[in-house]
Specification:
Layout lengths: L2 H29 L2 E2 L12 E2 L2 H19 L6 H24 L3 H17 L10 H22 L5 H19 L3 H21 L8 H18 L7 H11 L1 H16 L12 H7 L4 H23 L1
Antiparallel strand pairs: 1-2
Helix pairs in contact: 1-2, 1-7, 2-3, 2-7, 2-8, 3-4, 3-8, 4-5, 5-6, 5-8, 5-10, 6-7, 6-8, 6-12, 7-8, 9-12, 11-12
Length: 308
């Protein structure tokens, strides 16, 4: 695919996402579907619509299928389904978590089950050459990114910008290596994140909720694993994947380590993320998001250079 074709996919996905998210905001206002402030972790002044994530899911699926159809890549539809089916299942788990606040261990079990489904449908890590060990590594990778993006969704615009930057990197690497489906999905993922960001930038008019965070995190996990840079070793592939998802990995590790050191359960909600630490030093929410994005921008560039 040409860069111009991928740019068109990304722009179209952004416009579609922006429109569908706008419609979700109207729908949330009409039926009172809000994320309410609790003065602890959720400190917004007023209730915020929380259907943005489902809107992003719809926009992504439509964008990918429309792009493949427009390009005449009908043979890629089955492969696309092998990615979209478990990702949609992950969005459903997030929707249930939004509605009922699932307990941590059943939630992790469902997420792991969907990661196994993705493996069965063809998404596999190839490092040790042992199906069980490599399979376990992918399940762990998926859990880290799904929950890492969800944890990053703590400041307006942070999760969406992180996914957008990582998706751009995955798109460039996939395009350079002739991976049509992955480059299309990467461009669409970057586009829908940008369209959502238009409504989610501070002060946010909509939240993605767990449904959106789980879906975006899982898609990022799948795209980074499915990248096949020509001539790269297995170790280089691992490094590239980690670099593309550096910020959610770093934030998750920071939160888990600091909570354990304080004797706090890692699954406890709190305002102790990297963004909160920056804001506590007097930075605004937008400034903290921009400061944190410096890291993934650098690591994504490094991933692209390694893949050359």
């Amino acid at each position: 695919m040409t860069p111009w074709q991928l740019l068109i996919v990304g722009v179209a996905a952004a416009l579609l996402s922006g429109g569908v998210v706008w419609a979700s905001i109207r729908l949330a206002h009409r039926y009172g579907i809000y994320d309410h402030p609790d003065q602890a972790r959720k400190t917004q002044v007023v209730p915020i619509p929380r259907l943005g994530g489902l809107a992003v899911v719809i926009a992504f699926v439509v964008s990918v299928l429309a792009a493949l159809a427009a390009l005449g890549r009908w043979g890629q539809l089955a492969l696309a389904a092998s990615v979209l089916i478990p990702a949609l299942g992950m969005a459903l788990v997030g929707f249930l978590d939004d509605k009922r606040s699932l307990a941590p261990y059943p939630r992790l079990a469902m997420q792991a089950g969907l990661a196994v489904l993705a493996i069965v449908l063809g998404t596999r890590i190839q490092i040790f050459g042992n199906v069980w060990v490599d399979g376990l590594l992918f399940v762990l990778w998926a859990l880290v990114l799904v929950n890492g993006i969800n944890l990053l969704d703590n400041s307006d615009g942070l999760a969406a910008t992180t996914v957008m930057v990582g998706a751009v990197g995955a798109t460039v690497i996939a395009a350079m290596n002739g991976q049509i489906l992955i480059s299309v999905m990467g461009a669409a993922l970057a586009g829908v994140s940008l369209g959502f960001l238009f409504h989610n930038w501070f002060p946010a008019r909509v939240y993605m909720g767990d449904a959106g965070a789980y879906f975006l995190g899982f898609m990022l996990a799948i795209l980074t694993v499915r990248l096949r840079p020509e001539g790269s070793t297995a170790i280089e592939g691992v490094v590239i994947a980690v670099l593309l998802a550096a910020l959610p990995i770093a934030d998750t590790a920071f939160v888990v380590v600091t909570r354990v050191r304080r004797g706090v359960h890692p699954f406890t909600a709190g305002r102790d993320h990297l963004s909160h630490r920056i804001q506590a030093r007097g930075r605004s929410v937008p400034a903290s998001v921009l400061v944190l994005q410096a890291t993934p921008i650098v690591t994504v560039i490094a991933a692209i250079l390694i893949s050359l």
